[in-house]
Amino acid sequence: MAVLEVVIAPLGTGSTSISQYVADAHRVLQETPGIKYQLTPMGTIIEGELDVLFPLLQRLHEVPFVKGARRSMTIIRIDDRRDKDLTMEGKVKSVEEKLVTSK
User: Fold this and answer.
1) Which residue ranges traverse the bilayer (predicted)?
2) Which pLDDT score, from 0 to 100, does residue 12 have?
């Protein structure tokens, strides 16, 4: 299982607002089985198997073009740990535990 962060920035839309593009991308996420995702103020975190995530990323990258953008910039960060299970919650819990024990 991998955890990734994706930021998709449509360009050439005539507006500085991108929230409608984010909403349209999240509709794609809602339709995708086998993943978990979390909207953040600066991007979206997605958890799933890589064979699901890579085709999903391509679909997400296409959303701005379908909605009329002339250019799209997509930034992806992937955390793919193979020595133990990796989840969004587990990553946060690990840091929170260290905050408590380091006092």
Assistant:
1) none
2) 87
Contact 76, 18 (CB under 8 A): no
For the chain, domains (ranges, CATH) are 2-101 (3.30.70.930)
Does the pLDDT of residue 103 top 80, yes or no? no
Q: What share of the chain is helix, strand, coil (3-state, %, to 5)?
A: 40, 30, 30
Other C-beta atoms lying within 10 Å of the C-beta of residue 56: 21
DSSP state of 12: S
Judged against a pLDDT cut of 70, whether residue 102 lies above it is answered with no
In the three-class reduction of DSSP (H, G, I as helix; E, B as strand; rest coil), residue 34 is classed as coil
Overall average pLDDT of the 14-29 stretch = 94
